Amino acid sequence: MATSVDKMSTDTQAESIYFLNAGAAQAEQDRLNRQHRLFDDMMQNDLLPPHVASALSALKTPPKILEVATGTAVWLTEVAKTLPLDAEFVGLDYDTTKFPSSLPPNITLRQADMFKPFSGDLLGKFDVVNVRLIIFALKEGQGTDLLLTSVEPPSQAWFRFQDINWRFAKKVGRDMNLPLSMVAYIKEAGCVDCDDKAYPGNSQLYTRGREDWISRTNVHVKALAEQSLRGITSLGGVEGMTTQKEVDELLACFDKEFEDRIVHYLFVRAWGRKPEAD
Ligand SMILES: C[S@@+](CC[C@H](N)C(=O)[O-])C[C@H]1O[C@@H](n2cnc3c(N)ncnc32)[C@H](O)[C@@H]1O
Questions:
Q1: Does 182 reside within a domain?
Q2: Is 91 in the pocket of ligand 1 (CB under 6 A)?
Q3: Residue 90 forms part of a structural domain
Q4: Order of strands, edge to edge, in the sheet holding 88-93?
Q5: Per its UniProt entry, which superkingdom is the organism in (predicted)?
Q6: CA 202 – CA 225 distance, rounded (Å)
Q7: Structural domain tally of the chain?
Q8: 141-200: per-residue pLDDT in tens?
Q9: Is the minimum distance from the CB of 226 to ligand 1 under 6 angstroms?
Q10: Which domain holds residue 51?
């Protein structure tokens, strides 16, 4: 049985343009968990848009939350701490290698490809569906934020990374309209009361945590570059970035350049409500 699940997972992933799962699962688990803490600080610890969190706490039945492309389930695990113990959480991902080995009893993780129809028992059941950071998996029409990022002082390593990322995105047909197009996509899917909010990734520079923020962001940029370049080359790469040597050379530049650089970027959260059925 395990073999057929593993095979399904491998087949689905073989067709995917998503590149951050290459290499050791532990490195990517650590990167995602660190990244969650960065984003959580940036979003003032609002794990959900405040009006959604209030609506959940006003429910007369135990809240049920689904997360698609859950990764290490770090977001679900943190949200679960803020809700009653009878709340129910389900996380889906096509790659199960990043699932944590232990979880609270009210969180269940399952293997599922977000581009295939979901199992019937998941339909029409959840009060909130969350999906975060899937831009690298979306092809044109399925709708990059790296293009909205700027680095101070300017970094040759980052310029080169942006160029490689952009050419790879074009090569595999990635959706380049995200994240700013999210509200339009949610409306197109039939939701109402749609809106979004942008969180500037540099707001932490104007707090007492400035130095800590800069150092965590530099660690994060290097981990993202490493995971991305290894993944991009494992999917065939782009001209000038196809070999281990080319990856190592660029990563060495990142190591040299990213000590205390300031990174400006935007994190956008969009939401909408599925209208009640008649
Ligand atoms: C950048 S990670 C983000 C994980 C999590 N949402 C978070 O915010 O920490 C993107 C996740 O999408 C998953 N993913 C990519 N393509 C997928 C697909 N077709 N179906 C399900 N999950 C997918 C990857 O395995 C990975 O765990």
A1: no
A2: no
A3: yes
A4: 107-111, 88-93, 64-68, 128-131
A5: Eukaryota
A6: 19
A7: 2
A8: 554 556 567 899 999 999 999 999 999 999 999 887 777 788 999 999 999 999 999 888
A9: no
A10: 1-133
